[in-house]
Amino acid sequence: MSGQGAAGGNDVRGVRVIRSRTVVLPAADVDTDQIVPARFLTTTSRMGLGRALFADWRYDAAGAPRADFVLNRPEAAGCGILVAGGNFGCGSSREHAAWALLDAGIRAVVSTSIADIFFTNALKNGLVPVRADAATHAWLMVHPGAEVEVDVAGSVLRLPDGREAAFTLDPFARHCLLQGVDELGYLLSRLPDIEAWETARRG
Amino acid sequence: MTALSLFEKIWRAHEVLPETAGAPAVLYVDLHLTHEVTSPQAFAILAERGLPVRRPGRTLATLDHATPTESQQVFGGVPIRIESAARQIAALENNCAAAGVELFGLRDARRGIVHVIGPEQGLTQPGMTIVCGDSHTSTHGAFGTFAFGIGSTEVAHVFATQCLLQRKPKTLAIEIGGRLPAGTSAKDLVLALIGRLGVAGGAGHVIEYRGPAVRALSMEERMTVCNMSIEAGARAGMIAPDETTFAYLRGRPRAPQGEAWERALERWRRLPGDDGCAFDRVLEFDAGTVEPMISYGTNPGMVIPINGKVPAAGDDAFHKALHYMGFEPGEALAGKPIDLVFVGSCTNARLPDLRIAASMLRGRRIAKGLRMLVVPGSQQVKQAAEAEGLHRVFLDAGAEWRESGCSMCVGINGDTAAAGRYVVSTSNRNFEGRQGPGARTLLASPATAAACAIAGRIADPRGFAA
Ligand code: SF4
Asked: I need a labelling partner for B188 at 20 to 30 A (CA). Which of B17, B150, B306, B349 fits?
């Protein structure tokens, strides 16, 4: 784990290909309360949340790192792709979960299923949420540290032996990731339509 | 004409631009609710870009998540103990004042949990689209609205444009027949439903709860059901408006009045799904089979009837959850000692919830050594409860009676339990650490929570005649 990466949200530059070793979190239904415990939410910033990432799994009550937690192992250093069990990011809508992962250097999350709100929040910040097929996911789960490529343009996951696994990404989301298009900019460009709609509704 | 569902009607009425293969729909937001915890970063995005809040009249702000519930910190002039929370509160006050957004401030008699005050004020109205930077926004679906939680970046989108980019979700109809048995409640119903669906069972879907058992629920009960839709992974939950809905809204401060009310009624009566409307999935459920439920694990799908046994076997996640909870596979939970009882949250802290808990505690005391926190969902609920003397019942029983807020539902404001403690809670999430690092949450109804408080153990509320 490193402290680099897109610190905080909305600094969405184009994301084309992410090539990195994986770190595997062997847990399903990882909720956003685990990704960022609630006591870290009294911040008014998007920055610096990397220290909150999985805080109650990473540190013991005295604040010392738990050596057995995957993200604390030496081999996790520099890993930019997180592989986790199904239904990743369920629960609270806190975008802090995406900000914390990015701040800790994670640039893509791979699971069989990713909860809706977290999925949206991730995309808004250039964190690539990958819903992989069960077989590919199962392989990744038992091969931590694998050198993997997340190809956003092709919407494929490339495994070290060259196998490719397609994943689905909404065309608009893909476009935004690739071009670094920011959705707010897109919405603002639609303001004339929005105004016209409001006027028509008032009748 | 195609037969349209409630959801389809609301969706169509709010599509500024329909979705295409290449782009999501631009969906208009009628009502935006916001609070101190997920709004500061959204205001920061506006500030970075020099954007104003486009329709300040369509947003209402409140203080609930990080806000203290101890009276001295709210009214007594004692400084807010958690400095970062005090800064968030000040930030929301400043941001709202600058943007012209209405805020129910710290000492406002209308302040409360965001999902309690919207309906209470009559702001939540059938047919609306409602969003908030909080996943339990699904609560408002009880009024026949499409209401869902969003992240902070999307909060900024709503501030700046009053719209969101949305792909249309799928629909799931849950047809609920039968009648809830005596001693059970809407909370038991929804916990049983999540147990059946699983915590990801509703992913990508909007749930419409239908059928006679749903029609028989009060508005408060419907809110409890819709509130927990997100715990099944659903985008939203909704219930078609009917006479129960209209009776609840009539005369509320922000509900339409006079002629506007009559016109609104006409519109609202057209909202329920047309006969024969289609859903992507349909599930049937018999309310008559519901028993008082309690959670045994670390997500809201891990529930059993109160006299049932923890499953005998499961996967790694199951064993990890049991290890965290300190339970064994296959064992019964009834009779296990507990440390704390929390009656509160946007799931179960409205007046009828407090009445049920109070009716069981009247003339009794909570178990020795046990702590019980009763936190009303809003200041209005608090005032109404006090007018009925419910606070006296709680205080005489040995419970604490607090100002409104999220409190131990999320534990940001300092109301937490210590590691290893067992908390029977009327809230909605039993995730690890949700009520404090290491704290163990047991989700239940207000009646079950009160029964457990009296017994000092996990107890069946049906054994305690009110
Ligand atoms: S009471 Fe709990 S679930 Fe409801 S809004 Fe507050 S923190 Fe969220």
From this structure: B150
